[in-house]
């Protein structure tokens, strides 16, 4: 959850433009110094290696060569050529990009009590034009913090997670039955399929159930027209977000009105879904039925610690951020397990050993699957959903012996870090066990961000993926014909250019 771009929002442009020329300011404010500072003199901001020297030519080149979908490869190449820190400006967007875990730790130490992340102008513009509030994905400052503290209790705390685990488990079991039905229709008793759409349906069904306490029926034979419209709206919103990242919304409405209108219409449908769910929950309250857990939104409504429009804004952002951002890691994990059958077998043996000890409550079950959870972490190392994680340091900070002024957008290149031999041994090898040893892995697993601004849907996503793989692997053997690496593209999140075909064979 929490997909991210390499580029900064217009909202930060003022502070960025000031900091861009603020090399001397680093001498007037005591900077945060790295844990292993270089003995040589700290160099000014302008000395940081730079990718390209003309901001507008950089933007033109990106558009002409359709480089936006290859941002992760471009960033990886820039680190190889320029070193573990470089800066770049594309159009009005400026950033300093860093590679190493210790530099990510520096950003964590200097993020302050109100960590800032990159905004998405098109999302913010939709909220303003429709008079909707923003949720914590888009908020900053005290407003972000006050909402986040309330939401933490129901979304990311152990007690909150414990309550929605049965919902996720039910949907995972239903997905397995859905796959068995499809296999039974095949006389060969197996199923070879591009699973991307099915995973999209699973993650949307699971997250909606946990958030709203309602099933959408996406794993049934014929989903309703309303559910199909909702799916299409989410897909359209994600597809249109990427091209809208790099041009101000006002200009985009003039340059490509259809793209902008499609984006607005998609968000309207998503917000209407949240409205409908709120109405259904209120009807349940009015009927005076016995109190039971009915999902995250119902708990927030009952607590009455957030205004209704804030609850709706946050639930809508959770919905938008919790579908492809979970579906894609599942797809990549299934592919890696299919082409690494020895790892698949080892995880299945772990599952069998856990089941042999008798039934466990779900929270304890999740803690008994270290190899399975390590496989998810290994997938996110190689295929991070967002290719960067961003922070704006609140004070001048020294990174790689360069002074980076406060307020500068700094981005940790997650894709490049995950495949860097400076950080990981045999970085191209899929090896979940690397996470189970005694090696120091601090700030190496940042797919969900870090600190108080880490992805609030982290526990929901991790539990959803773990329970899905638990049930699928105990029911099916997964194969793939192609063992070649998957070429990936960046479409607001990292995804395969061409989804792999996977074969499911029932174990019974």
From TrEMBL:
It is an enzyme of class 1 (oxidoreductase). The keyword Acyltransferase does not apply. It comes from the Eukaryota. One of its GO terms (biological process) is cholesterol metabolic process. Heme binds at residue 455. GO terms for cellular component: mitochondrial inner membrane. This is steroid 11beta-monooxygenase.
């Amino acid at each position: 959850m929490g997909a991210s771009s390499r580029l900064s929002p217009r909202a930060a442009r003022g502070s960025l433009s000031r900091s861009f020329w603020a090399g001397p300011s680093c001498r007037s404010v005591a900077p945060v110094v790295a844990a292993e500072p270089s003995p040589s003199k700290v160099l000014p901001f302008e000395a940081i290696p730079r990718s390209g020297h003309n901001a507008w030519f950089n933007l033109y080149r990106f558009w002409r060569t359709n480089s936006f979908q290859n941002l992760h490869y471009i960033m990886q190449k820039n680190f190889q050529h320029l070193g573990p820190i470089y800066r770049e400006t594309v159009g009005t967007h400026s950033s300093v990009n860093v590679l190493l875990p210790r530099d990510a730790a520096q950003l964590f130490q200097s993020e302050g009590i109100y960590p800032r992340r990159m905004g998405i102008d098109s999302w913010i513009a939709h909220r303003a034009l429709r008079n909707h509030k923003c949720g914590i994905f888009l908020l900053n400052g005290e407003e972000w913090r006050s909402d986040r503290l309330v939401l933490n209790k129901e979304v990311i705390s152990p007690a909150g997670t414990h309550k929605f685990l049965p919902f996720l488990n039910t949907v995972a079991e239903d997905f397995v039955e859905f796959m068995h039905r499809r296999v039974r229709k095949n006389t060969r008793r197996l199923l070879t399929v591009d699973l991307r759409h099915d995973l999209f349906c699973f993650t949307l069904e699971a997250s909606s159930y946990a958030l709203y306490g309602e099933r959408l029926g996406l794993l049934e034979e014929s989903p309703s027209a309303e559910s199909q419209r909702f799916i299409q709206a989410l897909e359209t919103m994600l597809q249109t977000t990427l091209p809208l990242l790099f041009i101000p919304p006002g200009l985009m409405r003039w340059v490509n009105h259809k793209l902008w209108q499609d984006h607005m219409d998609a968000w309207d449908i998503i917000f209407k879904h949240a409205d409908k769910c709120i109405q259904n929950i209120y009807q349940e309250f009015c009927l005076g039925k016995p109190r039971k857990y009915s999902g995250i939104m119902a708990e927030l409504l009952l607590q009455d610690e957030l205004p209704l429009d804030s609850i709706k804004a946050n639930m809508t952002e959770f919905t938008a951020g919790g579908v492809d951002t979970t579906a894609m890691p599942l797809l990549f994990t299934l592919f890696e397990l299919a082409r690494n059958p020895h790892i698949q077998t080892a995880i299945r043996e772990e599952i069998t050993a856990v089941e042999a000890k008798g039934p466990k409550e779900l929270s304890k079950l999740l803690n008994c699957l270290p190899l399975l959870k390590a496989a998810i972490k290994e997938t996110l190392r190689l295929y991070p959903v967002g290719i960067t994680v961003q922070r704006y340091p609140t004070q001048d900070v020294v990174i790689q012996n360069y002074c980076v002024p406060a307020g500068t957008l700094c981005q940790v290149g997650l894709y490049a870090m995950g495949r860097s031999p400076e950080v990981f041994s045999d970085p191209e090898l899929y090896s979940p066990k690397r996470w189970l040893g005694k090696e120091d892995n601090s700030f190496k697993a940042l797919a969900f961000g870090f600190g108080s601004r880490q992805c609030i849907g982290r526990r929901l996503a991790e539990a959803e993926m773990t329970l899905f793989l638990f049930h699928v692997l105990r029911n099916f053997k997964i194969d793939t014909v192609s063992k070649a690496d998957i070429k990936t593209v960046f479409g607001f999140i990292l995804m395969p250019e061409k989804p792999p075909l996977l074969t499911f064979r029932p174990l019974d």
